[in-house]
Amino acid sequence: MAVLVTGGAGYIGSHMAWALLDAGEEVVVLDRLSTGFRWAVPPAARFYLGDVGNMDLLAQVFAENRIDAVMHFAGSIVVPQSVAHPLEYYDNNTSKTRLLAEATIAAGIKHFVFSSTAAVYGDQPDDTPVLESAPLQPKNPYGQSKLMAEIMLRDAASAHDFRFVALRYFNVAGADLQGRTGLSTVGATHLIKIAVEAALAQRSGVDIFGTDYPTPDGTGIRDYIHVSDLVEAHLRALSYLRRGGEALIANCGYGRGYSVLEVLQTVMRVSGESFDVRYGPRRPGDAASVVANATLARRLLDWTPRHDDLELIVQTALAWERHLMERKIGDLRELQQRLATAAF
Length: 344
Ligand code: UFG
Fold this sequence. Notes:
alpha/beta; three-stranded mixed sheet; binds uridine-5'-diphosphate-4-deoxy-4-fluoro-alpha-D-galactose
């Protein structure tokens, strides 16, 4: 049987595709390449170019492959973009998840793993690690769009022979330890990506969004989780569903938070480079502190994170950024050579 990975050319999806292949699974990737890259898909995966909302294509993918589980990563993830373009987010994250769930159920596929987010929690009354049972009060359309998808999956699981695990990701960062893939998105807005770009002189510095939060140093606190631990949680979710596990929504994080300033200091220390840090106003839609209580995933999915180490996260992110820079130089050389040949 094969696993369908939507968004498998993107950041987390490409790590998932590699991890599934490492685990001996057959992998089918569906991606429209809006932010992902064809080269990020492992060569051993079967690739379909297209949109997860295209029902004809989904029917074709399900007919041409023996798929027993869908892992749905495709989606839009930039919080400020969701504030500016809410309807795009409801379309891409909510409506298309509905279509994919419908096609999955119609094809008789019973297992579904969904990329949800800590953004469903918004600001919480205190700063203790958040449990799945905490009030759900997203502060932005991104969080709302994912929460609505969770609700649809829950109701579909009650009505049909269909079970799902939704993993609420905290702040995913770092790159594959074997250097096969990483965060390659052009114009990514994630703090660690931005900071490693600054350390490698790919940008002029880093703006801190807000210094007046009710946190010890005034900057936002997040629970940064290594992408390899996150994809491991998905593998566990897949075995859980195949064993007959019930519908489940679980947090994925380490249970410890770092402030923006602490992250920037770590990037400077690990890279040995310093860069400009500019103190600015808060970014719309941001919560002050978002830290996971992931006891449920540890207990029910038997998930044990192995890379709970901010320095390691930063090291792998730096290594991948260097790889991207070399890749760009390589592409440029190839272009120069082609131009030179064309001239003669
Ligand atoms: N930040 C800065 N400067 C930057 C970028 C970020 O100060 O240039 C700050 C943010 O204000 C926030 C922290 O760094 O306090 C982390 O910001 P990110 O943009 O890296 O991540 P978010 O916490 O906004 O969002 C991420 C994912 C979402 C996910 C969420 C869960 O992008 O998909 O974590 O908390 F939902």
